[in-house]
Amino acid sequence: MPRALKLRAQLRDQAPTEVEVLRFIAKQETLASTLEAFPSLDREQLTQLIERVAATLEPGLAKTLNALPRLGTPAPESVRVYTDGAARGNPGPSGAGAVLVDPSGQVVDQLGKFLGTQTNNYAEYMGLLIGLRRARALGVREVEVYADSELMIRQLGGRYQVKSASLKPLYDEAVRLLNDFSRVKLVHLPRAMNKQADEMSNRAIDERL
Which label site among 82, 142, 190, 203 has the fewest CB atoms less than 10 Å from its CB? Predict the structure, then answer.
């Protein structure tokens, strides 16, 4: 059975999420009528639009459609993704933060997500995930990840094993997301050099973002 038919059969057998429906449309449909109605768009731009809208339905990403780039605004080829997580009590009230910066040093986006009661390591991974999801939604091709969690960076680099049952699903998703980019660089940096992402993770706790 062709791959597209298999996907359709699978979707008929379960209740899809809104995100799954939008991403299926972006990947499988020709979008011919829409492209005919809006001749200034090409298929890649339309696919990216659907992906960006789908991303807003995932927890922790842009709050409204107004926060997304307008059509025709080129996404940066690469971004630096600064990520952090905070837990007051470990476990305790926790938040994740990420800041995306383009090659010129311009901030592309700042993200924060309140996580409830979690550990610091869980929050660190969630900071990475919301940053990578946003970069993917923007259509970025190359990412440099900067984080002050030595554990997370070494786990992603294959130097440490992931033994925590609560971290394993987050690690697996992070690996899948990283594999979507054409080039990835992982950098551990001192906490003092990660102030913006740290600020977003703490703001997420204070403001219940």
Answer: 190
